[in-house]
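Before the break, one more example. Copy the sequence into your notebook; we will annotate it together after we see the structure.
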Amino acid sequence: MAKRFTRRKCIAAIAAAMLPRHLNAQTAPTPIIGILDSAAATVLKLSTFYEGLKVEGFSRNQNLTVQYHSAENDYARLPELAADLVNRRVALITAFGAPAALAAKAATTKIPVVFAVSTNPIEIGLVASLNHPGANVTGVTGMAVGREQKRLKLLHAAVPTAPVLGFVLNPQNSNSEAQINDALAFAHNAGAQIKIIRATARRDFDNVFAELVQPQAGGLVIADDEFFLSASTDLGYLAAQHSIPAIFQGTTFTAAGGLMGYGSRLTELYHQAGAYSGLVLAGAAPAELPVYQSTAVEMIVNLRSAKSLGVTLPQEIVDQATTLIR
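Here is what the structure looks like once it is written out:
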């Protein structure tokens, strides 16, 4: 019996050695990451994010699986979506926009969270320090001090005779109060009148432009928000359709008819969020990974829109532009 047992073990060992190496070795499972998006997906956002992941050696559908959840601009859904990603035991949650980032942070203290936000992450309670985030959260910010005031200043310079400037924001945004304070501070310093308008869904856009008629608003400033970014094309088109000089952010808005765009370079923001997600997947501790602060600012001027609106832009504004649409 002892000889038979020894021979059987020997045959099994030889058979195992003859198996292909990839079958004989233990294959590491493909990591799954969750993306929690405050707004609807855009090609710009996801494509640049995936390019950032590739920098750290991770490619979707090759050595990485992605579970994408979007609140579709309904921020009230974010806690439920974040909880679902936690229950799926993803290796990492990447959160686009402050509402998604806050929901992800509230949902877990163990799963790493990498955020991409356009506001100060300390002020909204995401991290305790930019250099030493602590806990399980880090990310990328495109924060810029006084950005709302800068847009108001640019538009005021473009249409100095406008009796009123409209200022639209999303009240669901955790930074909305700061945005209102920025707008009111500008109005006080410049001696201008500001009409505050609120919008939370696309169905509100017609009302936004209707509200500009009554006070004879001569322009519109759009505050930072993930929902507004996802609706950039609609907002730019409506501004042109209603002959309203408007300023927001990014090439999508201005190419659709908006007069000007001013803000963080979104491609850098999303790309760096991908690279940071890759670093964390590779083993970097979020607590020790300083928040990346994007300093790249882009200013886009649509000269075609200016001409159709009858707006003569100061040469100073044209000279400041990083991109001119002719």
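Residues 1-26 have pLDDT under 50 and may be disordered. The first helix runs from residue 2 to 18. Try to locate both features in your own notes.
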